[in-house]
Design a protein that fits this description.
Length: 393
């Protein structure tokens, strides 16, 4: 439903509806045999609309209003309301935008739109959002949209959702797409028993032609770009932490708006063990969130927090029993996704804008420091040790 409304909204705002010839871009008909919609079909659609189980949202209601007026009265023929008569002006604009679309075509479009809305409101509503879109990323990342939520799911459960270089690129692309899509809320979560085990340590094993220096340089650029996407993400971003989280999957949590965790989750940043240093702006967000000494215990000594501890320290918003985690969290998110999206965006903007410059500076500095750390003996030895499975953290 939200997907449909959003597509309509996008077309609406981009002015597509100003020309009736462009109406097919919405999947609606303007000519041909389908034009034979009878007055009876139209009347049926008007009645069917009243039976919808879900409110289709203002954009769609506006579209329906315009098509109804066009179908029953023809092109807009009333004076434009004044600027301050906001609601009537918006309705007038919608009707007027249909231009000279014929009554028959408007009737057909109205019937088509109502039938799509009826079909989508009859679809079952499972715990997780209905998935009406799957983007062609690598199998390790699955992006779906439905019920007003775009879900970016790390999908490498056999490797505890460790992030490969390709996944960093795919997450950047998914966040960029989500920032422009119609879902009011975006979620990051994981498949299987882990949320994410952090950077895939084998990323360091395929050296480019430029050797370790080039590997460190390009990894630092990728890291900076990746974290920038979280800093700049313009609408509510929620982490659904379905299990233990390690490394960068913990540090970026400080950039999320809300973090829900199962009580099975743990939060671990073993940077010193790996000869590395903090990223994801955690050197700034963690002391701010939990105070400097708690942050130092995590970031310097790699103290692993339980979900309850992370919640008590403000990194996690709320912890749920694992048995009801998925059900409770998605139900709550679906309810939140019905809040006015522009209000949520603007509120996030006010909160985030004050910090953005600082966060970008921190991210740049952390990425630069890590570029050096990745070339250090401490780091190379720790990674070699993990890879040779002589020791595990
Ligand atoms: N990088 C590369 N491979 C990883 C990985 C990572 N970050 N995390 C898990 N894996 C792989 C393991 O090598 C293993 O692969 P295999 O089946 O081919 O041997 C598989 O995922 C399952 O992990 P395993 O170690 O067998 O599971 P576990 O439950 O015993 O331990 C972890 C899970 C996450 C505690 C452990 O794998 C680990 O410590 N990983 C490294 C985490 C890390 O240091 N991340 C970087 C932080 S900066």
């Amino acid at each position: 439903m939200a997907g449909f409304a959003g597509r309509l909204a996008r077309c609406w705002y981009s002015g597509f509806l100003r020309s009736p010839l462009q109406v097919p871009a919405l999947g609606l008909h303007v000519g041909g045999p389908a034009m034979q919609t009878s007055q009876k079909d139209f009347n049926n659609a008007v009645s069917q609309l009243k039976l919808l189980k879900e409110d289709p949202g203002n954009e769609v209601k506006l579209k329906l209003y315009a098509l109804y007026k066009q179908a029953t009265e023809g092109p807009c023929n009333v004076p434009k309301p004044g600027m301050l008569d906001f609601i009537n002006k918006t309705k007038w604009d919608a009707w007027n935008a249909l231009g000279s679309l014929s009554k028959e075509a408007a009737r057909q479009n109205y019937v088509d739109l109502v039938s799509k809305l009826s079909a989508s409101s009859e679809s079952p509503s499972p715990e997780a959002p209905a998935a009406d879109k799957k983007q062609p990323e690598s199998d390790s990342l699955v992006v779906t949209s439905g019920d007003g939520i775009t879900t970016i799911r790390l999908n490498r459960p056999t490797k505890k959702n460790a992030l490969t270089t390709q996944m960093y690129h795919d997450i950047i692309a998914a966040l960029q797409a989500a920032s422009k899509d119609e879902s009011p809320i975006t979620v990051l979560t994981g498949s299987g028993d882990y949320f994410c085990s952090g950077n895939d340590l084998t990323n360091f094993t395929s050296l480019p032609a430029g050797g370790p220096e080039e590997m460190a340089r390009s990894s630092a650029v990728l890291l900076r770009d990746f974290v920038n996407c979280f800093i700049d993400f313009p609408k509510p971003l929620v982490a659904v932490v379905n299990g233990p989280a390690v490394g960068i999957s913990v540090t970026i949590l400080g950039l999320f708006d809300v973090v829900y965790a199962t009580d099975r989750a743990t939060f671990h940043t073993p940077f010193s063990h790996l000869g590395q240093s903090p990223e994801g702006c955690s050197s700034y967000t963690f002391p701010k969130i939990m105070g400097s000494s708690k942050a130092a215990e995590m970031l310097l000594f790699g103290k692993k927090l339980t979900a309850q501890e992370a919640c008590a320290q403000g990194l996690v918003t709320e912890v749920f029993p694992d048995s009801t985690f998925q059900k409770e969290v998605w139900a709550r998110l679906k309810a939140y996704s019905k809040l006015p999206p522009n209000a949520m965006r603007i509120s996030k903007q006010i909160i985030r804008d004050r910090e953005k410059e600082k966060l970008h500076a921190v991210n740049a500095e952390e990425s630069n420091v890590l570029r050096e750390r990745w070339l250090s003996d401490e780091c190379m030895n720790a990674i070699a040790s993990f890879l040779s499975r002589k020791s595990k953290l």
